[in-house]
């Protein structure tokens, strides 16, 4: 019995010596990002690499770096030239929720076997941007709040300033693509009884992290050519020391007017606007970014003036659609002169 016991121990030791095992590894992948599952082994010759997911073969490489590849999953790959150097790392291209699970790397060489287990977790793809705009595509005016390429789908809520007695009834749609990333589209019909209302959209993730907030106010403003005009813009209370930028569009691409940096306390105006606008830096520090438009011209300043307050996770936008009437300056003088002449003729 002692001889049999000795041989059994010897064979068991030989088995462990030729089969190389490594501790389990946990890899955390982000949705839609490439992900690497490590697998290192002692290089030799005649390598055969097999990757399993939940004990089902998902990738096979036979014959080392010049061998044949068998896979039914195009987004999985091993770089063959590295196999001869003892590296059989599996790359998951644009990983998704379907890639979660337990993987096993099994490598057979002319001298030994290697086995390694990798546990794959797929975590959130955080929100990068939240947009809010006024849309008229449905036949009526509505606020459209949108977020793209995010996981999990965030929770979207609405509010107004000031609050109204009318119940807000947004319609929110959540669609996922083949990678598991969501696009969320939430729409709220504009309340016509409150044309100067501020609409606020917030998006938050169930995984925690910072909530994103965006708000929008749209107004119509009329001015007279040659007469100074104040374009209002005030930051909501949820913004703390925001950056400010004014821009203008008369139907073409927007042009920057002036920016304000809260860290330095300095404002920078575009040379083309230097003689036409004035920003009170003292008021900006307290959230009032109103812009004074001096000596406006109908042909130059009729259009959309956009004010944007921003912080890393929040933006506030005010769109002022400005119409400068020609009745002003020289036109007024000509009109008055004509009226005087007409009166004299009648007399």
UniProtKB/TrEMBL annotation:
Pfam families: V-set. The lineage of its organism: Eukaryota, Metazoa, Chordata, Craniata, Vertebrata. Keywords: Cell membrane, Disulfide bond, Glycoprotein, Immunoglobulin domain, Membrane, Receptor, Signal, Transmembrane, Transmembrane helix. Its main location: membrane. This is Ig-like domain-containing protein. Residues 1-19 form the signal peptide. One of its GO terms (biological process) is cell surface receptor signaling pathway. Residues 23-115, 210-323 form the Ig-like domain. One of its GO terms (cellular component) is external side of plasma membrane. It is a single-pass type I membrane protein. It is found in: Cell membrane. SUPFAM superfamilies: Immunoglobulin.
